[in-house]
Design brief:
single chain, Rossmann fold, alpha/beta, about 625 residues, 7-stranded parallel β-sheet
């Protein structure tokens, strides 16, 4: 790597904001001998351009000896982020490769067949006459031979050990804040009717320990291998059999990794196993209920060994970019890095704080036990915010589909349904794009859209956070960490999501958008996680105010000009002056402490076993308003 090339590799004709200083700091960090540089760059910093500059510092093929790694990888966990890269003319030399399922076969009789089910994978020894023009193999060949290959983090990890995508000199990971969580997700093994092709033929034991899960995994791996070999012996496979063969191959690899990692005395990974109740209808009625169990989920915690194989062994130098790597030491521990060997570069925020205000419209707690009481008040507040923003689009972060459905029902009952849009799990992307394309001032009630969403300008001028985004304590990994007292991690993870969400509606220095906080637990979270806040977000929190909203009037909420303009009234600016006569305050004081009994209740909902033994948790837990078991 030659860090001195970083300015020459910058793809834009000029710098904006703090980009030039950021490049200088990144160059100096690599020049000082650091193999890993964390770049904490807030929204609007042009992280993709910085990433391209770092990738351009990689050793070229001409400079490398035959045994030396050359070129660079660009990867991101977000598919939408990769789409943005692919469509950006300034990043045209990042050669994008996607998984086979994203490409369609070009054979005349197979035009609707994805490449991962085409004749070349269905028939043994198939000689494709058009493979040189196949969109997948063409993109793969280009990406593997050019200086910068771009792919999703999932594809990057799946190609570890590949002869095509070998080790390179530089690896750049964009949106890297969730690297540990993504690795845990990719390394998680789901064993059930949707993931094991012959699940109904299995007699799954009642797994009461991680050791028994290992023994069962060894037996299941052997069964999968026999069934895969039977399929490979056939001359031709149907599309269904192709899917089964490929899934069996994946499953064999997953099970083998789990068994070998667990039996490795040097591995730092802790494994947990959850088991659901079995479906009695698919079992022998004469079998003792205690002998058989249901679907299994085998989960790793802090899978350092997995990351070493899939990420850290793939390059010589690494740049990890994100707005929300909040604590360097904690992040490094989670991903298996030594903090002293990692440099942190902070990029200053260039968006005026008055253009990104936070407003306190809290109505109470949104924990499971308080939600029925609080949700109607939040719905009424949303109506009043619609009145305050009659001609502007709004985004509601509902956190869960249960909350989304309840809010939508209430808002329809209030008579503002014509201005409300929702989405379901299957149609979320299409519904989102339809809302973005509309010029009507509609309000989109979303679930899990706090990241990778660009709502610049009039696409959205205001948003509401309906619930503090704490992780679900019914998840065994979360419960295990909290038993070990990792409360700082718990609060930091929620804060990270909030910061990401706040960046959805303000995308440039001249842009503006208001964020309203409806759950009182958000205010408590700000206090608990304050030491991990970036300075620029601390400034937002310190400037937070309680607005005065119009009196509840659903008819007024739907009266608008029907077109989106560049209005800055209604809270997009910095002060909290009244928006009209008869306005009433919406802010409420933060509720006091509750007992810690919610933790015990949520923990009992999931039966899990740990590979490292039980640890002593604190007998008293913090405020009960952190608990959420409804995903």
């Amino acid at each position: 790597m030659n860090p001195e090339r970083i300015f020459d590799a910058f793809p834009a004709p000029s710098y904006r904001g703090n980009q030039e200083q950021a490049l200088r700091d990144i160059r100096d960090a690599f020049a000082a001998g650091n193999d890993v540089v964390l770049v904490r760059a807030p929204t609007g910093s042009g992280k993709s351009l910085l990433a391209r500059s770092v990738a351009g510092c990689a050793r070229t093929i001409e400079e490398a000896e035959p045994s030396e790694a050359a070129g660079a990888y660009y990867t991101t966990p977000q598919v939408s982020q990769l789409d943005d890269v692919a469509s950006d003319d300034l990043l045209a030399d990042l050669n994008v490769i996607r998984g086979k399922s994203n490409y369609t076969c070009i054979l005349p009789q197979e035009r609707n067949t994805p490449v991962n089910q085409a004749p070349c994978v269905r028939e043994r020894g198939y000689d494709c006459s058009v493979q040189h023009r196949c969109p997948y193999f063409s993109d793969r060949a280009i990406a593997s031979n050019r200086s910068i290959a771009a792919m999703t983090l999932a594809y990057f990890m799946q190609t570890a050990g590949s002869e095509v995508f070998r080790k390179r000199d530089v690896v750049v990971i964009d949106e890297a804040h969730g690297l540990a969580e993504w690795a845990e997700m990719y390394a998680t093994i789901q064993l059930g009717p949707r993931t094991v092709p012959f699940w109904d033929d299995l007699r799954v034991p009642n797994i009461d320990s991680i050791e028994r899960a290992v023994r069962y995994a060894e037996n299941l791996e052997q069964t999968c291998t026999r069934r895969k070999d039977d399929l490979l012996a056939q001359e031709t496979l149907s599309p269904r059999e192709v899917r089964e063969r490929d899934r069996l191959q994946e499953l064999i690899g997953e099970l083998d990794w789990f068994v070998s990692d667990f039996r490795d005395p040097q591995s730092p990974t802790t494994w947990l196993v959850d088991q659901s109740e079995r479906n009695a209808a698919n079992t022998d009625e004469e079998t003792d209920d205690e002998e058989l169990g249901g679907p299994l989920t085998i989960k790793p915690m802090n899978p350092e060994k997995y990351l070493a194989h899939t990420v850290w062994d793939r390059g010589n130098k690494f740049a990890l970019l994100s707005a929300t790597i909040l604590n360097k030491a904690a992040f490094c521990r989670q991903v298996g890095l030594t903090p002293d060997d990692v440099a942190l570069v902070d990029v200053g925020h260039t968006f005026p704080v008055e253009n990104r205000p936070l407003y306190d419209v809290t109505q109470g707690k949104m924990t499971y036990e308080h939600r029925d009481e609080t949700t109607p008040d939040i719905a009424r507040t949303i109506v009043r915010l619609m009145q305050r923003h009659p001609d502007e689009k709004g985004l509601i972060h509902a956190h869960s589909y249960n909350i989304q459905e309840r809010l939508a029902d209430l808002l329809r009952d209030f008579g503002v349904g014509d201005r409300i849009r929702v989405h379901d799990r299957d149609g979320r992307d299409a519904d989102l794009e339809e809302w973005k394309a509309s010029t009507d001032p509609d309000v989109f009630i979303s679930v899990k859209m706090e990241e990778a969403l660009d709502l610049k300008g009039d696409l959205c001028r205001w948003q509401v956070l309906c619930k503090a985004p704490y992780l679900n304590t019914g998840d065994s990994r979360v419960a295990h960490r909290l038993e070990e007292g990792q409360w700082a991690w718990y609060y930091r993870t929620a804060l990270r999501t909030i910061i990401q969400a706040c960046g959805r509606v303000v995308r440039a220095p001249e842009d503006h958008g208001a964020t309203y906080l409806a759950d009182s637990s958000l205010l408590d979270l700000f206090e608990r996680a304050r030491t991990d806040m970036p300075d620029w977000f601390t400034a937002q929190v310190d400037r937070m105010s309680t607005p005065e909203l119009p009196a509840f009037d659903p008819q007024a909420a739907c009266d608008s000009s029907g077109s989106i303009g560049g209005r800055r009234d209604g809270g997009s600016g910095g002060d909290s002056s009244p928006s009209g006569s008869g306005a009433e305050s919406t802010g409420r004081s933060v509720a006091g402490s509750d007992s810690g009994t919610a933790y015990t209740r949520s923990r009992s909902r999931s039966r899990s076993q740990s590979g490292s033994g039980s640890s002593n948790g604190s007998s008293s837990s913090p405020l009960a308003d952190v608990w959420d078991t409804d995903g």
